[in-house]
Amino acid sequence: MLTILIRSVILVCVAVVTLRLMGKRQVGQLQPFELVIAIMIADLAATPMESLDTPLWRGVVPMMALIVLHQAFSLLSLKSQRMRAFFSGRPTVIISRGKINHHALRQLYFNLNDLLEELRTGGVLTPTDVGTAIMETSGKLSVFPLSQQRPLTPRDMEVDTGYEGIPLTLILDGRLEKSNLPICGKDEAWLLGVLEKLGYHRYAEVLLCYLDTDGLLTVHGFGDKPPERQQAIKPDEVIW
């Protein structure tokens, strides 16, 4: 039993490392050849895990070979448009200015029920409201409404909304994110002073604390107390 446990842990770790070497994008959106490699990795890990008579190297070595093969395919895709199209395919426009391209649907083996479902998922009720719909190489349908059907934006109203960046997380699950404090040009004494004003005396009392690029500090506590916001710094002092 202990041997099976150890072999399972080793094979799972190797499989996870192998998939991580494929990159973050591949985990979320697999291209066709990447999907094949992922399935083969799972199969190679399962065989030595089930059979004690199969040496571990018979699962590990082929997985490493698949990673080398994946890197080679990725390099070829970067260097050549033709190879990229061969391995991943090309995006296909299936709706243009509200008109459905039924020839494209047939080529993709994509029926109308699936199309309507994808449109509803994208927040569009009818194909005539679609300016462009593109079937991406990953199999995801990108839907763009007609310009007259899209929501009103600040740009349409000529409103300057200013800079909006990623908030800095200062406290996460009761622990200080020390690497983020220097980014905003502040120290722990400053942060503790702000928290004191909001009624928090220790980091352990804070579930989440982050600083927006508009200078607002938001604090979520562990209890029933609602989140609180305070203007911690001036917007023109934001340096990240």
Could you characterize the architecture of this molecule?
- With 240 residues, this protein is α+β, with helices and mostly antiparallel strands.
- It folds into three domains: 2-86, no CATH class; 92-145, bsu07140 like domains (CRO Repressor), CATH 3.30.240; 168-237, CRO Repressor.
- It is built from eight helices and nine strands.
- A five-stranded antiparallel β-sheet has the order 6-5-7-8-9, with no helix packed on it. The chain has a four-stranded antiparallel β-sheet with strand order 2-1-3-4.
- α3 (32-50) runs antiparallel to α4 (57-79) and α4 packs across α5 (81-88).
- The longest helix has 23 residues, at 57-79.
- It starts with a helix and ends in a 9-residue tail after the last strand.
- The mean pLDDT is 86.
